[in-house]
Design a protein that fits this description.
Oligomer: single chain
CATH architecture: 3-Layer(aba) Sandwich
Largest sheet: 7 strands, parallel
Bound molecules: NADP nicotinamide-adenine-dinucleotide phosphate
CATH class: Alpha Beta
CATH topology: Rossmann fold
CATH superfamily: NAD(P)-binding Rossmann-like Domain
Shape: globular
Length: 266
C-alpha cells in the first residue's frame, strides 16, 4: 500500500501516521455501518482523509452522526449519514438503496456495527442471544447481500469487524463470542462465494481503548496487563488493519487478521 509514497523516515521506528498518509482512496465510495462514533468513526474519518466518499449508518447516536458527517465533509469529500436499525431487514434494504441512489457506485463495504454484552452463560436470555446474533452476524450478511450487485460491478471489497472473541472462548460472553465466530466463518464463506469479483476479509480486534467514557475501564486495564504488548489497542491500530485490507490486492481474501497486541497468543 505504501508503494506510491516516497518515504522519508526520521528513524528506523515504524511511524503509522506516515503509512496512513500514503493511503489513497480517491474516487472510491465506502459504506460503513455504525460509523457515528468509536471505531466506526475512526475508520470513516481516516477513509475520508484518504479521499473516499463516505456513507455511514447510525442507530441511536444521532448527535454523534451529525458531528461525524461534519468532520467527514471538512476533509473535502462527500458524506452521507443514514439511520438504520440493523436488526430490521427492511431498514437495511432501504439504507443500501439510499446509499446507491445517492452515490451510484460502491467500492467498499465495512460491516463495523456490533453489540458487546457481558453475561454469565446461564443468565443469557433467548432474546439477548437473538439480538446479539442479529446485529453481529445476520446484519453483516444482509448488508453484504444487498450490496453485492454494486460491489461486483466495481470489483469491490467487504471488510468485517470480527473480534478476538470469535477465536477464543470468553466464558462471560457466550453469545458475543459465538456470533463473532460466525462472522469469521461468514467472511470465509463470502470470500469463496463472491470471488473473483469481490474480496472479503475480517479485522478481529482484541481489547481496544476507543476513548471517551469507556464502558469497561476495569476490564480494559486488566486485559492490558495480560497482553504481551502491555497495553490496550487504540483506534488507529484497527484503522491501520482496515486500511491494509482496503488497499490490498484482490488476491488477499478470506483472511481474519487479529489486532490484539499478542493477547490471543496466551
Ligand atoms: N472496541 C473494542 O475493543 C472491540 C474489540 C473487539 C471487536 N470489536 C468490534 O469492532 C466493531 C466496532 O467496535 P466499537 O467498540 O466501536 O463498537 P460499539 O461502539 O460497541 O458499536 C458500534 C456501533 O454499532 C451500532 N449498533 C449497535 N446496534 C445496532 C443496531 N441494532 N442497528 C444499527 N447499529 C447498531 C451502534 O450505533 P449507534 O451508536 O448509532 O446506536 C454503535 O455506534 C464492533 O463490531 C465490535 O464488536 C471492538
Amino acid at each position: 500500500m505504501a508503494a506510491a509514497c516516497s518515504p522519508k523516515p526520521q528513524s528506523l521506528a515504524i511511524d503509522s501516521s506516515f503509512t496512513m498518509a500514503c493511503v489513497n482512496l480517491k474516487n472510491k465510495t465506502v459504506l460503513i455501518t455504525g460509523g457515528a462514533r468509536r471505531l466506526g468513526k475512526a475508520i470513516a474519518l481516516a477513509m475520508a482523509q484518504a479521499g473516499a466518499t463516505i456513507a455511514f449508518t447510525y442507530a441511536t447516536s444521532a448527535n454523534e452522526a451529525k458531528q461525524t458527517l461534519k468532520e467527514i465533509e471538512r476533509s473535502g469529500v462527500q458524506g452521507l449519514s443514514l439511520k438504520c436499525d440493523l436488526r430490521d431487514e427492511k431498514s437495511i434494504r432501504q439504507m443500501v438503496s439510499q446509499t446507491l441512489e445517492h452515490f451510484r457506485t460502491l467500492d467498499l463495504l465495512i460491516n463495523n456495527a456490533g453489540v458487546f454484552q457481558t453475561a454469565k452463560l446461564e443468565e443469557i436470555t433467548a432474546e439477548q442471544w437473538d439480538q446479539v446474533f442479529a446485529v453481529n452476524v445476520r446484519a453483516p450478511f444482509l448488508v453484504s447481500k444487498y450490496c453485492i450487485p454494486a460491489l461486483r460491478k466495481g470489483r469491490g471489497k467487504i471488510i468485517n469487524l470480527g473480534s478476538l472473541g470469535g477465536e477464543k472462548p470468553w466464558s462471560t460472553h457466550a453469545h458475543y463470542c459465538s456470533s463473532k465466530a460466525g462472522l469469521h466463518m461468514l467472511t470465509q464463506v463470502m470470500a469463496k462465494g463472491l470471488a473473483p469479483e469481490i474480496a472479503v476479509n475480517c479485522v478481529a480486534p482484541g481489547m481496544i481503548d476507543a476513548g471517551g467514557a469507556d464502558r469497561y475501564p476495569e476490564l480494559l486495564q486488566r486485559v492490558a496487563e495480560q497482553t504481551p504488548m502491555k497495553k490496550a489497542g487504540i483506534p488507529e491500530d484497527v484503522v491501520s488493519a482496515v486500511m491494509y485490507f482496503a488497499t490490498a490486492p484482490h488476491f488477499i481474501t478470506g483472511q481474519v487478521l487479529t489486532v490484539d497486541g499478542g493477547l490471543g497468543l496466551r
